[in-house]
Specification:
The chain is mainly alpha-helical. It is built from 9 helices and no strands. It starts with a helix and ends with a helix.
Length: 180
C-alpha cells in the first residue's frame, strides 16, 4: 500500500513542478509585455530552475533552448551582455539549428565590443538563414560599430532591395541616412 501512495506522490510532485514552470513562463511573458525586464528575467530564471531540477521535465532540450534564448535576449535589454552571451551559449548547446540564438549572441558580443566573436556568430546565423533581414540588419550595425561605413551601407541597401516596404527596410533606410 505504501509503494502505491509513494508513486502517486512522486507523480503529483512532478505534475506540480511542471505547472510551476508553466506559470513562471506565463509570468515572464506578461512581465516582458509590460516592459518590466527585471521581473521577466526573474520569472524565466525560476522557470529554468524548474526545468533543470530533477524529475519535472528531465532537461527537455527544446524547452531549455527557448528559455535560455528568452533570458539571454532579456539580458541584452538589461545591459548584462556577458550574462546574455552565457545564456545564449547555453541555448545553442541545447539546439544549434536555429539562427536566433546566434543572432542574439552576436548582438551581446557587439555590445561588449567583441567584434570578432560577433562577426563569427553572424556568419553562422547567415549560413542557417541566408539573407534573413534581422541578420543583415545586425551585420550592418556591426560594420558601423567597426567604422566600416561602406560595408554597412551595402548590407542595408540589400535589405531595402530584398524586403521593400518592410519595417526592417525602414530601419535600414534610417541607418543609411545616419551614415552621412
Amino acid at each position: 500500500d505504501m509503494a502505491i501512495g509513494g508513486a502517486a506522490d512522486v507523480a503529483e510532485r512532478a505534475k506540480q513542478a511542471r505547472l510551476t514552470v508553466q506559470l513562471n513562463i506565463q509570468a515572464a511573458l506578461a512581465w516582458k509585455a509590460a516592459g518590466d525586464v527585471d521581473k521577466a528575467y526573474m520569472a524565466y530564471s525560476s522557470a529554468l530552475s524548474g526545468v533543470t531540477s530533477k524529475g519535472s521535465y528531465d532537461g527537455n532540450p527544446a524547452l531549455l533552448h527557448e528559455l535560455y534564448l528568452e533570458r539571454g535576449t532579456l539580458q541584452i535589454r538589461r545591459g548584462q551582455y556577458r550574462a546574455a552571451a552565457a545564456d545564449l551559449t547555453l541555448a545553442i548547446e541545447q539546439d544549434d539549428r536555429g539562427f536566433e540564438a546566434y543572432l542574439q549572441r552576436a548582438k551581446a558580443y557587439r555590445k561588449k565590443r567583441d567584434y570578432l566573436k560577433a562577426g563569427i556568430d553572424l556568419k553562422i546565423a547567415g549560413k542557417i538563414a541566408a539573407d534573413h533581414p534581422d541578420i543583415l540588419l545586425e551585420q550592418g550595425i556591426l560594420y558601423r560599430a567597426q567604422n566600416r561605413k561602406l560595408e554597412a551601407g551595402r548590407v542595408w541597401r540589400k535589405i531595402i532591395t530584398l524586403y521593400p516596404g518592410s519595417e526592417t527596410a525602414t530601419i535600414a533606410a534610417t541607418n543609411i541616412d545616419l551614415l552621412s
